[in-house]
Amino acid sequence: MPDSTNLASTHGKHFYGRRKGHTLSPRQNAMLDTLLPKLAVTIPDAPDAPIDIDALFARKDAPLWLEIGFGKGEHIATQAKWNPEVNLIGCEPFINGVVGLLYIIADEKQENIRIYPDDARDVLEHLPDASVERTFLLHPDPWPKTKHEKRRFVSQENLASLARVMKDGAELRIGTDHSNYARWTMLQLDRSPFFQWNATSADQWRIRPDDWPETRYQQKALKDGVSSVYLSFNRVSR
Q1: Is it the case that residue 156 has pLDDT exceeding 60?
Q2: 2 within a domain of the structure (yes/no)
Q3: Distance (Å, rounded) from C-alpha 67 to C-alpha 37?
Q4: Contact present, 56 and 63 (Cβ < 8 Å)
Q5: Sign of CA pseudo-dihedral 42, 43, 45, 51
């Protein structure tokens, strides 16, 4: 997820982050006008109405994975390529990142990704109970200042929302190169009654698993000599 500084609002909730970066080219705007409507997740008007997952994807009854803040889309696109039997929903409010993923989808003709170009919390409110088998939160904005901690995505409220939509035993993957955010994440997950850390050795969170594609943010951190952590948790059985 890109660094962000501006305050916006979405569906009655405060959203802290950038919506747009550099000016989009005519071709990029054309991608938004033509391809995005075919792939966009629509939030139902009724507060309690669930998203119709089967109506979104050609492959019915497939496992559903969710990525929160997909950046430019490299990770979700790679997961879609490696796992063609899986349906994926990616949420990203930064429109330049959405365009990046649209280009990948168009170039690689991927059919198992759908996009919500806004705050992931909107999707979490409307996904059916126990519908998600894996969730990714990779390199979220760390909001390093103490006064901004409440802006971090990993919170008890958001973890409870994730727990509702995730199946028993479903995996939550969180990656970060920010040491304070890693500690914050561990403290929040330790307090949560819904998730259990599944690491049994240091290698399981210090070494990137083979099925965990690198993101551009991880690559940038490595160039700067900063290591990332790869945290994996499972939804506790109800």
Answers
A1: yes
A2: no
A3: 19
A4: no
A5: positive
- The residue-averaged pLDDT of 208-218 equals 86
Q: Which residues contact 142 (CB under 8 A, 6 or more apart)?
A: 152, 176, 178, 180, 181
Structural domain boundaries, residue 92: 7-235
Phi and psi at residue 20, in whole multiples of 5°? -150, 145
The question of whether 177 is a catalytic residue gets the answer no
Integer Cα distance of 132 and 65 in angstroms: 6
- For β-strands 64-68 and 132-138, DSSP reports them as parallel
Residues linked to residue 173 through DSSP beta bridges, in sequence order: 136, 232
CA distances from 104 to 35, 176, 218 (A): 12, 24, 19
Q: What is the CA radius of gyration of the chain?
A: 17
* CATH code, domain carrying 120: 3.40.50.150
Q: Which one has a higher pLDDT value, 55 or 220?
A: 55
Cα three-residue angle 188-130-35, rounded to 5 degrees: 95
- What is the model's pTM? 0.88
Question: Domains in the chain: how many in total?
Answer: 1
Does the structure show a pLDDT above 80 at 21?
no
* For residue 118, pLDDT beyond 50: yes
pLDDT above 70 covers a percentage of the chain that reads 91
Q: Of 48, 141, 203, 211, which one is the catalytic site residue?
A: 141
Any domain includes 32: yes
